[in-house]
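User: Let's play a game. I give you a shape written as tokens, and you guess the letters that built it. Ready? Here's round one.
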């Protein structure tokens, strides 16, 4: 896995000095029970199947580009996708359920679950794996997306997994630490924090 990440980073570094690769930027959709998930595809046009990275966004209302209405606009995932494209690697990033263009699939946060996010990642994986434009599939998750990618990986046709900012602690411990600083004391006591 470390070799794959090192290779990916080397490709990105070399791409900065290489000749420009024509890139197709287009919407891509995935039909799901209850609606459609909308995403963005960046596809280099080398004339043969290229590796494809499925980019899974982090927690909260983080959209496909890495932006969060609570934390500002940084386009981190969009910039990552363009870096991959310049290196000849396709990518798909999408708005998860309950966020941005995926809001209609879960307008109420109580309808969201890790399992639902994993099912969506698996469905995207199968769709991309069946597409003849793509070679090997790699899952890349940021923050909570790293957890989703890790949970999806055993059932996914992906050949690799990249975790960016994923937690090295059990999710329950991580949530407790995060809630301690964000919830009023009365709510923390109710939550057992």
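Assistant: Ready! My guess for every position:
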């Amino acid at each position: 896995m470390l070799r794959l990440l090192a290779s990916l980073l080397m490709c990105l570094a070399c791409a900065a000095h290489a000749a420009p690769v024509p890139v197709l930027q287009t919407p891509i959709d995935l039909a799901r029970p209850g609606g459609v998930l909308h995403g963005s595809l960046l596809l280099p046009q080398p004339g043969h199947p290229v590796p494809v990275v499925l980019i899974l966004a982090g927690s909260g209302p983080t959209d496909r580009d890495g932006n969060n209405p609570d934390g500002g606009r940084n386009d981190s995932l969009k910039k990552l996708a363009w870096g991959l494209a310049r290196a000849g690697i396709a990518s798909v990033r999408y708005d998860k359920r309950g966020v941005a263009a995926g809001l209609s699939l879960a307008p109420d946060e109580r309808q969201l679950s890790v399992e639902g996010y994993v099912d969506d990642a698996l469905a995207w994986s199968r769709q991309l794996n069946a597409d003849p434009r793509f070679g090997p599939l790699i899952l890349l998750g940021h923050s909570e997306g790293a957890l989703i990618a890790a949970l999806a990986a055993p059932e996914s046709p992906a050949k690799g997994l990249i975790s960016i900012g994923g937690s090295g602690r059990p999710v329950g411990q991580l949530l407790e630490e995060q809630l301690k600083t964000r919830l009023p004391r009365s709510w923390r006591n109710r939550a057992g924090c």
